[in-house]
Amino acid sequence: MVSNPKVDGTVRRLYLQHLISTTPKNRLRALLLPLATPDVRKRVQIDINYLLDHPDEIVPYFTSRDADEVLILLGSMLNSEGAQVDMRRITPAQQKQLQSAVNSGELSKWVANKYRNGRVDPDTQLKAAKPAQMPPAPPLRPDQMQNFLPPFPKLASGRGSVKVSSPPQTLDQMLAMVRHFNPNSGVKQPKVFGRLDGFKPMTIPIVFHLLGYQDKAGTYLPPYNWWAESAAKHMVDEINKFYRGTGFQFTLQQVRWDPRKFAYLNRGDLLAWQNCGKDCWEGLSSRYNVQGGPINIWVAGSFEGAFKCTPVAILCQLGANGLTTVNPGASEDWKPGFEYLPTQLVYINYDRFSPDALNRPGAWEGGAVVAAHEIGHYFGLLHTFEGGCSAPDDAVTDTPPNLDPDSGWQPNWLVELTQWCKDFRTGKNPNPNKLLKFKSCPNLDGNSNDKVVDNVFNMMSYLDDVCRMGFTDNQVARLQWAALTFRPGMQKKYARS
Known about the structure:
Blueprint: H1 9-21, H2 25-32, H3 38-43, H4 49-53, H5 58-64, H6 68-78, H7 92-101, H8 104-117, H9 124-128, H10 171-178, E1 202-210, E2 213-214, E3 220-221, H11 228-243, E4 248-256, H12 270-274, H13 278-287, E5 295-299, H14 314-317, E6 322-324, E7 346-348, H15 350-353, H16 366-378, H17 405-408, H18 413-425, H19 473-486, H20 488-494
């Protein structure tokens, strides 16, 4: 049918639509997946769930893109009676149309245009939704205003099998901590840490809240509509890799991206979306009764691409890649029962979530790095450079004191370390002795010959994404202690059997 050039294009498309509508979803998925050519896969993360959930739109979409070659290919696959089509025989014309048509941005624009032009009845809530008025923050009681986290309990020392108080890590110990990230090390699995007495390994659910806005034409942006689920799943999978062996793992519970279902996601216009900060997330969480318990990750704002900060977006210009509203150094965030407050949340910006930006292997999983860092704060970890070269630094003893790389390091150190990490993670086995220079607090260990350097691989540092790979023994002990002491409900509810 589809190979006969005499068949009218409209008839051919109608017949192809009939084939699609009568093809089981799992088989249709198997046929659509190869349409993402290797070149496309390098540039975008393809998610075909939208087309699978709306099979009646497959032919209209590719038709709108003038992608007849794609339809011919799909028709050949559907007519193959289950035989495998040799994707190596895709013609140059088909490759060109595939690269143009099978693209998250193009499909997103097409779907948005359908809603805007009324070819599909729009949900009135999509355009009617406006930014919510934020309730005022409740005043703090006097007993909530102490600015410290209760000290790590001395009675925990020696309990369980995890180390709670160790000398500062040496360079050799740091390298052993991350060697599984080197593809030529022969080590495939990360270190398995011990446990504090009473701590039970947990699998904690995560809920993503993807905020958006409408442009002047009424189009809802950013284009989450067909890659949100896969991007969230990918990020959770990568976060789990960083936390393997610690007793903490995570599972994707829900991705909220559609303002027709969750009106609070629509922040109105671009400026409101860019400037949705701490008060905005906390206000939305309280107003719309976002459930605490799962870790809620909010996404808004962008530093790059089509949605980047405008000059008038002051909060956005001063914004961060990520943060958590749980201050690991403030006691008001660590009260019994506070673990279920929806205002205890994690934030990452859009660039960190988008598979076209930093949520991908080619960007060293920069999205998962920031999310894992913020979850570390959520469970009581501080920055490794806290306090600089003075005690109490980050309240754990095996992270060597060091200065913030952004402000306390010598010129070119960060560039040199980043290149070393790239070489290490691509299997080039760079010389470890080149790391001995990274010592911003040189006199603290009392012996200049000791191999004690800055935290060059630590997840709780401010190093480039490629260098942030893991946690120390004492950091893991603190994570477990915070879960036991301040999140007992999560311990009970999400403990793995």
